[in-house]
Structure formats: structure tokens, C-alpha cells
Amino acid sequence: MICKKRRITPEKKRYTRKNTLIASGEKYIYYLGQTVGGSTHDYELLKSELDVNLGLFEGYQTLVDLGYLGMNKDYFCDTIHLPHRKARQSKTNPDTKLTPQQKQENRAHARCRIKIEHAIAGAKRLGAVSQVYRNKSIPFNDLGMCLACSLWNFHLKNKHPI
User: Fold this and answer.
1) CA dihedral 43, 45, 46, 52 (to 10 degrees)
2) Is the separation of the CB atoms in 87 and 93 below 8 Å?
3) CA-based Rg of the chain, rounded to a whole angstrom?
4) What does pTM read for this prediction?
5) Domain segments of the chain: what residues?
6) Per-residue pLDDT tens for 41-53?
7) In sequence order, what DSSP letters do the residues of 143-158 get, joined into one string?
8) What is the pLDDT of residues 113-133, one digit of tens each?
């Protein structure tokens, strides 16, 4: 009797990359943070890049998603706006729905933030940035994303109406 060993293959690993981007409502990318592995949380990445005590967000209307929960308290700024979060359901709080006013505010927040998401998607049009990344070169990580953001900003600057 011949016994063959079956080889169990693990799931394919995804070598993901993550950056912090700061963009305006005109879809122009003003800041590109360092590239790190995809397992790093968004807010931890921001805190490691931008010091809390510098007051960088004062005087600017800053719209962030729920990945940056607690940012307005840590950065001591009233101009940082987060969407409303639905409360967790428990025995004491069985009704976890948002009020109609909170839903309306979340919709207005999303209408403004969609322009930022379009800027991120515009930078990811460069295929090397959006596809599965297998290169181990750390400097190439930053170079690829920097090139993608630069091309996007160049596209916005030189866009001619048809």
C-alpha cells in the first residue's frame, strides 16, 4: 500500500500596504504618509506620523471616517468631524437605531467625504498600487504610492474641460 501525504495549502497571503492620505474637497492630495503593512490600524498609523501636540488640524474642517474614532479628543480640536456611530445592542439598550437627525448628518458627512474617497481611488488607478504586492523592497513601497499620488495631482492640475 502506497501512502501519499496530502499537503494542506494555507490561504493565499495578501501582502497589503496602507498609507495615510490627506486630501482636499477638490480631490488634491496634500499629504502622503509612510507605507506600512496592512495589519496596522488606521488611527495608530496617523498617531505615529502626526504628533498630537502640534495642532495640525486646528483651523481646518477635517472629515474622517469611523476608523479614526477618538481623534477629536486626542488632537484637542473641535473642527474634526466623525460620523455618528450606532450604539451596541444590550439588555439595557435594546433600541440601537440612529435618530433621523443623526442619519441626516451622516449623509451630509458622506457627501463631503466621497470627494476624498475619489481622490484615493484616483491615486489607485496606477495598477502597481492597487494590485497584490509581492515585492519586499521597502523603498519601492513608498516610491510607488508617491508616484501614484503625483500622477493624480498632475492629472488634476492639467485637466482641460472638453
Assistant:
1) 90
2) yes
3) 21
4) 0.78
5) 17-83+99-157
6) 888 988 899 888 8
7) HHHHHHHHHHHHHHHT
8) 999 999 999 999 988 888 877
